[in-house]
Amino acid sequence: MRASLIQIAVDPDESVDSRRRRAASLVREQADSELVILPELWPVGAFAYQRFEQEAESPSGPTYEAMAKAASDAGVWLHAGSVVEKAADGTLYNTALVISPTGELAASYRKIHRFGFDKGEAVMMGAGEELVTVPVPGGLTLGLATCYDLRFPELFRGLTDAGAQALVVPAGWPARRRDHWTLLARARAVENQAYVLACGTAGTHAGVEQAGHSIVVDPWGEVLAEAGPDEEVLTVDLDPAKVTRTREVFPALKDRRLGLPTPNPLH
């Protein structure tokens, strides 16, 4: 399976509508791939908190409409990154959309771990509660996560238990923590013996410089491709059989021991 990660640049001087059109054009250019991935909150910017309410949309809103048409035109599976979703009760979510080659919404994932501690996304958005996997033709099941989720290994273990063989992580990761980004992407690949496709943004979100450096890691932890800091399209070929081979040759997942009793305190 050929996958393309579109590390789109977010420029605060570019309108959301203009960036949607540009992203759609970039998706259409990836017609030789089977899977295309966009970053987190690329329409508005992951750190543009003051615009979240203004740019919020439904999962079937303008970003979905533009991306569904682009996916259909290119004939690709499209992980369209994420949007600020406004639910029927008014709650905002950071919601990832996966679109089929026919333009249908195949899956959505509300980000579980919200970044910001006591501000920003953490207080403005609701938390997702469901793990989401998506089987795609070609023999891979995708496990969905978003940005800050990368720091929580239990989420990825749950996705692995649910059958994920490729872990897709769109992000708006700050440049000042770029080393964490690549380290954690490789760690999640090694511990789950799965591909990790981590797609970040370039440019600047509300004054926060983005790391770029989208990365694809194989199930053994080898980096197959890594982007630089600027807008770039990263294209790699994935072999679903490599996941099976890695798990058979080095069956570490079989040695997991969960639910061990808590040791008794010394008296």
TrEMBL record:
UniProt keyword list: Hydrolase
Cross-referenced InterPro entries: C-N_Hydrolase, C-N_Hydrolase_sf, UPF0012_CS
GO molecular function, one term: hydrolase activity
Domain CN hydrolase: 1-240
A Pfam entry, by short name: CN_hydrolase
Gene3D superfamilies: Carbon-nitrogen hydrolase
Signal peptide: none
Similarity comment: family membership: Belongs to the carbon-nitrogen hydrolase superfamily. NIT1/NIT2 family.
Protein name: Carbon-nitrogen family hydrolase
Organism whose genome encodes this protein: Streptomyces peucetius
Lineage of the species this protein comes from: Bacteria, Bacillati, Actinomycetota, Actinomycetes, Kitasatosporales
